[in-house]
Amino acid sequence: MNKKSVLLYKILVIGTLILLIGISVIPSAGHEINNINAFHSSLETVDSPNGLLSCNHLAYVGGFICGLLEFKLNDPSNLTCACEDAGVLDFATWTNDGFIMTHEYTTGILYKIDPETCEMWAIGGGGMSCNGLTWDPVNNVIYTTTGNMLLVYDPDTGEQEVIGSHGQPDIYMYGLACDAYGILYGWDLVTDKLWTIDTETGQASLVGPLGVEIWYSDGDFCKKDDILYLVSYNDDPPSSVLYECDEDTGSCTLVGQFKYAVYEKFFVIPWNYPPGVPIYLSPLNNSQDVPIDTTLTWSCIDPDGDTLIFDVYFGICNPPPKVESNQSSKSYDPGILDFNTTYYWKIVVWDECGESTSGPIWCFTTEQGCILPPDTPKIEGKRRFKQGEGGNYPYTINSTDPNGDDVCFVINWSDGTQEVTDYYASGEQITINASIPSKGGTYILFEIKAKDVYGLESNWTKLEVTVPRNKTTINSFYQLFFERFPLLERLLSLLGLI
Fold first, then answer.
1. CA distance linking residue 366 with residue 346, whole number of Å
2. What is the DSSP letter of 277?
């Protein structure tokens, strides 16, 4: 026998042994396996945000000291036990519902494994002895091969249907893998070459030699990076290794060696559908006269059924800033909005695997409302001063806006200058200093009005202060006046006015 013939003989023997092991682990088709002793390392340890169930990081392989092992693709030597006794069978693929699909080599019966709980159950079907197993992410079907014929599985029942012959003499197709675009690839044990396979006819077309000799080998595509990986047995020295293969040429490069023997006929790279585009419910895009007390609402569906979280972007500029991160609610209350203002909003959704999808930017304009001007400013402070008591004196000023808008103050000083203050919150008190004359008299120090952010203005109000004249000075004035006009003094005296 040549080396390949010996290999095929070994495959038949090992397949029989695996079947016997599978029968001891799984009593009959249709019976769910429970109470499996599970040890599952936390997926939270995988790098984020794009690490969880991502091609760049996580993969599963069958094991002998542990039924299901997980590792990062760039480090096959670092294996972690995911399920101690997962009852793995021959060949595996990841499905669109987040489970591992596997089958019995001799019967073709399909099984599913939940890597989170380590439960395994039979789907059924089968009929033909098959190699390879892969999920087509475009058509949502499963392909397998008898070695020279392509078959398709019904993923719900496990029933097999023959598509057609690979049409190539002297090959024995051993493994299958679909890339992210649904293109089916296969590799054979006789020539150690990579092929593309027509999913309508089963016809195989040569891509190129792998450049390495494969023995027992399962493979899978990293759907994100569109790279083909093969797990194979290496004869010299005896070891289990991981290859990275070029789908355009077939050429394979060694990634690394597993730290101990693994089951090369069971290998799967999880993949994940990103969440669907968020569907905005309210307010509708470009809607007008939206109440100022409104709530943003939306919905979203994840193809994998993952738990979703949302980032909310909202504001008066386009694009809007992020105002909320990682919220689970599908609504956002921005508070009381301004009248007659255009707002922009956007939702970005994340699934638990770190994949995200952004929604479009929508806008709406709030209602006109009844925008009222601010109240006339109130001035608090001393209004009467003694003569000679001049200098700067502080006055507190405030104005309340009926709409709660910020206000500024316009001040006309007695010297003819004008001052406009910064904006302050409605009702907030500010202090200004006014200069008090030292001479007696009544003076208007300034007049003031309030103005809101929309330019609406209050009425003017004035600050009037009095500085009483000195009485001694007044008496001296009267005395000099009547000395000059004595007849007027007598007349006023007769009338009782003085």
1. 17
2. P
Q: Specify whether 197 is located in the same domain as 94.
A: yes
Tally the C-alpha atoms within 13 A of residue 396's C-alpha that lie toward its C-beta: 5
CA-to-CA distance for 84 and 91, rounded, in angstroms? 18
Contact 346, 320 (CB under 8 A): yes
- 353-372 in b/e form (b: 16+ CB < 10 A) is bbbbbebeebbbbbeeeebe
Closest CA to 240 of 256, 219, 220: 256
Beta bridge partners of 220: 229
CA distance 117 to 135: 22
At which of 268, 301, 320 does a domain end? 268
End-to-end CA distance of the chain: 149
Tell me the chain's radius of gyration from C-alpha atoms: 43
Q: Are residues 136 and 204 in the same domain?
A: yes
Q: Is residue 350 part of a domain?
A: yes
Domain endpoint, select from 239, 268, 297: 268
Residues 407 and 423 sit within 8 Å (Cβ to Cβ): yes
- Residue 90 CA: distances (Å) to CA of 19, 217, 358: 9, 10, 39
Do 136 and 255 fall within a single domain? yes
Task: Report the DSSP pairing between strands 217-222 and 204-209.
Answer: unpaired
Indicate whether 461 and 495 sit together in one domain: no
Both 286 and 432 in one domain: the answer is no
Q: Please report, in tens digits, the pLDDT of each residue of the chain (498 residues total).
A: 444 444 444 444 344 333 333 333 333 333 232 222 222 222 232 333 333 344 456 899 999 889 999 998 888 999 999 998 777 889 999 987 889 999 998 899 999 999 888 999 999 999 999 999 999 988 889 999 999 999 999 999 999 999 999 999 989 999 999 998 899 999 999 999 999 999 999 999 999 999 999 888 999 998 877 899 999 988 777 889 999 999 999 999 999 999 888 999 999 998 877 888 999 999 999 999 999 999 999 999 887 677 899 999 999 999 999 999 999 999 999 999 988 999 999 999 998 878 899 999 999 999 987 778 999 999 999 999 988 777 889 999 999 999 889 999 999 999 999 999 999 999 999 999 999 988 888 999 999 999 998 899 999 999 999 988 765 555 556 666 666 777 766 676 666 556
Number of domains in the chain: 4
Alpha carbons 147 and 13: distance in angstroms, whole number: 16
Neighbouring C-beta atoms of residue 497, cutoff 10 Å: 7
Q: Do 150 and 29 share a structural domain?
A: yes
- Which pair of tokens denotes residue 412? 């006309």
In a shared domain, residues 166 and 72: yes
> Looking at the domain assignment, is residue 371 inside a domain?
no
User: In terms of domains, do 346 and 234 share one?
Assistant: no
Predicted TM-score (pTM) above 0.85: no
The enclosing domain of 324 has a CATH number of 2.60.40.1220
Domain with 294 in it: 279-366
